[in-house]
Amino acid sequence: MYILDVIPLTAIPRNQLQILSYFNDRTLPRGAVVEISLNRRKVFGIVLAAEPLAKRKLIFKKSVSFELKKIDNVISDRPEVSDWQLKIADYISSYYYAPLGLSLKTVLPSFWLKKKYLRVTSSFIDDRFKQNEPIILVQSISQTKAVYEKVINECVKKNRQVFLMVPTVISAKYFFNKFKKYKPIFIHSGIKLKEYKQIWSQVMEKKISLIIGTRIGLFLPFANLGALVVDDESNDTYKSNMAPRYFASDLAKFVANSLGAECYLSSSFPRIDHMRDQQVLGEWFSSRRSAVVNMISEIKSGNFSIFSRKIKEALQNTEKIILYVPRRGFANFIVCQNCGSIVKCPNCNLSLVVHIQRGQNQPYVSGVMPHAILMCHHCRYNQPLPKQCSSCGSYKMRAHGLGIEKVVEELKKYYARMNLEIPPILKLDIDSNLSESEEEKLVSDFNSIGRGILVATPMLLSHKYLLSAKKIGIISADSLIYIPDFRAEEWLFRQIWTLRQISAELIIQTYNLDDAAIKLASAGKAQQFIFDELVARKNLRYPPFSQLVKLSYKHLDNAQARKDAIGVYEKLKYAISLELPDANKIIEVIGPAPAFIHKEKGYYYWIILIKSNLEIKKRNELLRLVPPNWIIDVDPRSSI
Length: 640
Known about the structure:
Elements: E1 2-8, E2 20-24, E3 33-38, E4 41-52, H1 53-63, E5 69-70, E6 73-76, H2 83-95, H3 100-107, E7 135-138, H4 144-157, E8 161-165, H5 169-178, E9 185-187, H6 193-204, E10 210-213, E11 225-230, H7 248-258, E12 262-267, E13 279-282, E14 289-294, H8 295-300, H9 309-317, E15 320-324, E16 333-336, E17 353-356, E18 372-375, E19 382-384, E20 397-400, H10 404-417, E21 425-428, H11 436-448, E22 452-456, E23 469-474, H12 488-501, E24 503-510, H13 516-523, H14 526-540, E25 547-555, H15 558-579, H16 583-586, E26 587-600, E27 603-612, H17 616-623, E28 631-634
Parallel strand pairs: 2-5, 7-12, 7-13, 8-10, 8-11, 9-10, 11-12, 14-24, 15-22, 15-23, 21-22, 23-24
Antiparallel strand pairs: 1-2, 1-4, 3-4, 3-6, 16-20, 17-18, 18-19, 25-27, 25-28, 26-27
């Protein structure tokens, strides 16, 4: 009789045991697959270890108060999961405080255990592990290809593989075409199982030198990885929004180290989290012209248009121009001019956004096109424009704010008013519902036309390698920084910095000339901005000077949500006072507080923030106190 330690391939709450024990008539190797009973259901499990019952009898007699179950079935009596896959799953589970079984399911390919599945043979070997910090590659967008090609060439000469991880399929296709001479393969979550299997075997058998793909490629069975290059490492799409909530650009460091490879984090403006005591290679982009326009001065001088005089001049004289609009829709909200009431979503308590809907007759609202609806961008609730205020009954309803649809309409009005021929106007935003191929065609059409205007939301940044224009105008830079998050200035700076590089001249319209990010980005002073941000973050103990963990809780009743959040906060504070007498130096618990989006889809959200300098093991002991119906997000995108 043997005792088997098994990882169930399912989500077990992280504050419960992740490895369970069962017995079997015969031993099974590490990585074998069994079927087990768990909470009245049958699930697959991976054997982690096997030991004769005789060796465990004494331990079980002393510490086990339950009866061991027998495994239900042996699915595979040979290893179907490698040590390397187990090690990666264990790291994800530990660092991101995620269920171990769920972490392992994330690592395993979607065709795992299916017909002709080729098992992984690469192993985690201690003498291959390199505890190296990643190398930060800083370069302009136009230099990126050359920088990557140098890394690729060095690895190919040594017969080693390179994985170029990209945030989007759009970026992947760009590099796939640029590096065709290396005969790369392209992997992403949308490929068919047959193609996935083929890539899997080619990588494991060293038939491919260059692999280009999204974050799913991190878990390929690399046979001889020499370099792992993370393109646009600051891109938010690298962060998983479902458990396990890992950040692929950070996980890449562990994967590279585990395989003895170099890790390169590349960006024209890297995350400030990575700019403390890191090796940085490359030169900061500093050329190109930028102009900052004070929109308050424009109004004082009699220009009440959404376009400054500088933008108007560009519209008349420039052959090709991009207008960058931070917000979707036509207007940001509808407000009653009598009582100040704003029309909000009944499910989310957020203002409803005005969207143009052609072909329907709607009540007239000042500042809005006749054919419009109100829409919630979080739950997709929509309603017709109101005839009158639901609070005071007034008919004085007015639209406020600026969205991409309004910019398009104002462009047409401007050219008509000036008696000028309207050039082709292309619109790139999520509401256009373009397929991937249609989106690519739109970008291609803009690049090929002699004269035209592209009006785009931040979706534009996904095409930064393909787009260029003589001039780019940011219609309302202030709209790029609308949330009270410690990274908000960094996000603003990065967008301006990127736009500077795809245009000969950038025009920034703002009502706040004193904003540090706008001033320094327009002046090309990236290092000064990073220095100032690091000083501020050090004083407030934000990353990279601590690790941030966000605890989120939702409930249909706001009072109950608040009460439960206070209970968890007090439990954490009490545990810290008992276990960590010098807690103020190494950990801080902030909250509880309503989330920035307090109500969404009928639920009220409360959050608690933890700034931690604890070792991972000690931090996880503290997180065990958090109930399983809370979301624990390590290194969250946002602190609010």
